[in-house]
Amino acid sequence: MDTLAIFGLQLVLSLIVYALLAKWYMAPWLAEKPMNQALIPLIFPHAFRHIGMVFLVSGVVAQPLPKVFAYPAAYGDLTAGLLALLALVALRGNWGVALPLVWLFNIVGTVDLLNALRQANAVPDLGATWYIPTFWVPVLLVTHFMIFARLLRRDR
Description:
Order of helices and strands: HHHHH
Largest sheet: none
Number of domains: 1
Shape: globular
Radius of gyration: 16 Å
Structural class: mainly alpha
């Protein structure tokens, strides 16, 4: 199996595992919670997105990643992580702008992940950062989906 096929397989299988966890355990538990309380645990994993800055660290990646991937992925993750932190504080503090901040964070974070995933040319050079898109990104994608579902359900 070539590198890209292994990467794709690991990404898809991780996505399936996290989707099952979300459907069987997280969604039923969150369904009983008010909006702000349900959104907080879904946003918390995104508060660690500053980890994506590692795409800019030589020695961690196999060789310098293509700049067209590394810079948008690193700074997109940092931006999404900071927006997640702001949304968490706003939700916890019951700020009037909390839900608009959640929408902003969720849109920016989703676009960042989808943009990074479409750049398969960087996969062979991920080095030690391989775990980010194959293990961590599926968690982020599933929680983004769950946040959108919760926000849209409330808007109805």
